[in-house]
Design goal:
CATH architecture of the largest domain: Alpha-Beta Complex
Number of domains: 2
Radius of gyration: 30 Å
Distance between the termini: 94 Å
């Protein structure tokens, strides 16, 4: 039987009064040796008292696998955790349990944490002091701390979209596998580390649960600046939500499970639903640059014929009216594109959510001007609007953050405003007949709240009527492609011969 490797990680700072008692109370004997292989790691964060000396003395006193380290400089509460979790990762532990060296959390609760994690495939188990079974006030928690904890947890639950009874417990169990997936090393070195790692675990798709723990407040010294701590965790929670909205970007919150597939936005007003409404059953549609089959298939189902020109197609589309040609629209020549498309007469040309991904947009548009089979077609172009109000406000505050999705998608090579896309199309001999502003994809960011998402869509649509340039998340331009001078000359010569 393969034993589960458990690291009990004790963070300690100026805890000389409590550290020996904490180490003695760790209930290793209650963890069956045939099931668990347990090690205790104490990291003293450069204490000014005798915490390290007392803990190190316990190596010979306790008949347990115990390692005691001392940081050469004070790294902070979060910085100290980074070392312990790195140790757990590097030494291939299955679980790491965070325990404080000041005796605020009872070591006797460790078996309860391990029992809970075995019930289901949880990646984190938190010991909650705010559970109705915990009696925090009866355990000596000061009233002001109780009220502050409740308030901050309620705000964080609302902003992050969780239902935890406590965000601020320092008694935690993590599956080491989830620590491998998240960039915890980028977190704060302070006490707000605990809130940031919760959000990272949630972003990575991990399931978090809690167990009630008893509260004990004695002579331990609190090293937390309450006001500073509250401000930092509220800022981090807001940054998390803004990143979900694709407005803010931070590497520490880039830990979602691999989702390479771009989500469709067909169920609401978007750059996917609006172009699709323009398609008729008699249309022959040219789609340029799109690689995702699930974004192409709605057109295949609706149009007479669909032809896609893109470098790759990330999946298969089985339909007799669909044709794919593997080519980079930004590099293909007029002759090659004409040869590929000469068997069709297109009525619609779609450049939906792709123009910003081309470094040489002008070349793409110039090539289209000379392809005979699309001269009579209507074009549809959608691009993100970098002048969207939230982006402007971020700029005002000095931020310009690329994101994994959205207006400032990291794969974007070009940025557009309402005026710049109009000018670009005009200079490329496109007749822009209609410009529509598209609201932000709130249903994707607020999956858990359809009412709020629909309300935001309506409000955004209302403000777009006032100013597309300021309130549109994306811009959609439709119109026709003017024939090239060469094509017009050839027509003139044919007409002259006919006369």
């Amino acid at each position: 039987m393969v034993r589960t490797k458990v690291l009990i990680f004790v963070v300690a700072y100026n805890a000389e009064e409590h550290i020996e008692n904490v180490l003695r109370r760790i209930p290793i004997g209650e963890l069956p040796t045939d099931r668990y292989e347990t090690e205790i790691l104490v990291i003293d964060d450069s204490s000014s008292d005798k915490t390290y000396e007392i803990a190190h003395r316990m190596v010979d006193v306790l008949r347990r696998k115990l390692m005691v380290l001392k940081n050469p400089q004070n790294l902070g509460y979060g910085g100290n955790q980074k070392l312990g979790y790195t140790y757990a990762v590097e030494n291939n532990f299955d679980y790491v349990i965070l325990l404080h060296g000041d005796a605020q959390y009872a070591p006797e609760e460790i078996p309860a944490l391990l029992k809970k994690v075995r019930e289901k495939d949880y990646v984190a188990v938190f010991g909650s002091r705010m559970n109705k079974l915990s009696d925090p006030l009866g355990g000596g928690m000061p009233l002001y701390k109780y009220v502050a904890n409740r308030f901050l947890t309620a705000v964080q639950n609302f902003v992050v979209g969780t239902k935890l009874t406590e965000y601020h417990s320092g008694y935690r169990l993590y599956a080491v596998d989830i620590l491998r997936q998240i960039p915890f090393r980028l977190n704060s070195d302070g006490f707000d580390f605990d809130s940031e790692i919760i959000m990272q675990v949630i972003l990575a798709g991990g399931e978090v649960t809690e167990v009630p723990i008893k509260v004990h407040y004695g002579t331990e010294v609190c090293h937390v600046n309450g006001v500073d701590y509250a401000i930092k965790i509220l800022i981090a929670s807001l940054q998390y939500r803004l990143q979900k909205f694709r407005i803010f970007y931070s590497r520490r919150f880039t830990c979602e499970q691999a989702q390479e597939i771009y989500e469709d936005k067909l169920g609401f007003i978007s750059s996917h639903s609006l172009p699709l409404k323009l398609i008729e059953s008699s249309d022959t549609v040219l789609i340029l640059g799109q690689e995702w089959p699930h974004l192409i298939e709605p057109y295949v189902k609706k149009a007479k014929t669909v032809v896609c020109v893109s470098l790759t197609l990330k999946g298969e589309i089985k339909a007799t009216n669909f044709f794919h040609f593997a080519a980079d629209p930004s590099k293909i020549s007029v002759e090659d594109l004409s040869a590929v498309l000469n068997n069709y007469t297109f009525t619609q040309v779609l450049l939906v959510d792709v123009l910003e991904r081309f470094a040489n947009v002008e070349k793409v548009l110039d090539v289209l001007e000379y392809v005979p089979s699309i001269v009579e077609a209507r074009f549809v172009v959608t691009v993100p609007n970098v002048a969207f109000l939230p982006i402007r406000l971020m700029l005002l505050l000095g931020h310009f953050n690329y994101n994994i999705r959205g207006i400032l998608d990291q794969s974007n090579k070009r940025l557009f405003t309402l005026h710049s896309i109009k000018r670009l199309l005009k200079e490329s001999r496109f007749n822009v007949e209609r410009i529509d502003g598209i609201p932000a994809p709130y249903p994707l960011a607020l999956k858990e709240n359809n009412f709020a998402a629909n309300l935001l869509l309506r409000l955004n649509s209302f403000f777009i009527k006032i100013s597309k340039g300021l309130f549109a998340y994306q811009i959609m331009c439709t119109g026709t492609i003017q024939p090239s001078s060469k094509a017009l000359l050839e027509r003139a010569m044919v007409l002259s011969r006919d006369d």
